[in-house]
Write a structure and sequence with these properties.
Blueprint: H1 2-28, H2 42-55, H3 57-63, H4 74-86, E1 106-114, E2 118-127, E3 130-141, E4 144-151, H5 162-179, E5 191-199, E6 202-208, E7 213-224, E8 227-235
Antiparallel strand pairs: 1-2, 2-3, 3-4, 5-6, 6-7, 7-8
Keywords: Membrane, Transmembrane, Transmembrane helix
Length: about 240
């Protein structure tokens, strides 16, 4: 009789162990008990965002799908929307994320500033050896990093190449009449007589129309051969 009880007791222990193991397996396999997602770092956030943007650049701009992008906060979305809409009627929409550039061959990131609430990262895009720099600012809200601002004003890392200078010269030659605050004398047409680069964002230009001769100091931002932003055009004489 004791042997029988001992046998039943061993069977009960084995059964209990199997039930406990089965319960634990079911518990840890429950969908609502998955591991918590680890928050992305600022670098990871920017890297994922730029990867997606470069891959789907045209579609993203045309469909405005950036409005649903989890890596952007409302302020960044609004700024991107405003920039895109400002060129909506032109042949080529300005890209506010790549600062007007075409798709780069590759890009790299450098974290230059970080605290608990804000981070700054420089994105360097490589266009056939010409490096463009973009400053990206992120903010941390509820332990989630999101892009708050994309600043294109830091511009180009290297001095303008001869090809860039040629493209800029051709742009001014083609558009000088529209750019000049002074208008041609009736019957005349402006043409450039001299153009000298001070640095990569400033130049001195001399032009005339056969009746009047003018000089101007111009501050500009060169994005690419089809996108040159004029910040100031000041007549000097």
């Amino acid at each position: 009789m004791m042997k029988k009880n001992k046998k039943y007791g061993s069977l009960t222990i084995v059964t209990t162990i199997i039930l406990v193991l089965g319960f634990l397996i079911l518990y840890y396999l429950r969908p609502n008990n998955q591991k918590k997602e680890i928050p992305l770092s600022p670098e990871q956030t920017v890297n994922l965002f730029y990867d997606q943007w470069i891959e789907n650049k045209t579609e993203t701009i045309n469909s405005a799908s950036y409005k649903d992008n989890k890596y952007l906060n409302a302020l960044a979305e609004e700024e991107i929307k405003r920039t895109i809409e400002s060129t909506a009627n032109s042949d080529k929409k300005l890209d506010p994320v790549l600062c007007g550039q075409n798709k780069p061959e590759n890009f790299s990131l450098e974290l230059i500033n970080k605290n608990k609430s804000k981070s700054q990262i420089i994105v360097r895009t490589d266009h056939s050896g010409v490096i463009k720099e973009i400053l990206v600012e992120l903010v941390n809200e509820n332990n989630v990093w999101q892009i708050n601002k994309i600043d294109c004003s830091i511009g180009e890392k290297n001095d303008l190449s001869s090809e860039d200078q040629q493209a800029i010269s051709e742009y001014f030659a083609k558009n000088i009449s529209e750019l000049s605050p002074e208008k041609e004398v009736l019957g005349g047409k402006f043409y450039i007589t001299s153009l000298d680069f001070i640095d990569e964002n400033n130049l001195i230009i001399e032009y005339e129309d056969g009746h009047i001769a003018l000089s101007a100091e111009v501050n500009f931002q060169y994005l690419d051969s089809e996108n040159i932003e004029i910040n100031e055009f000041n007549i000097m004489n």
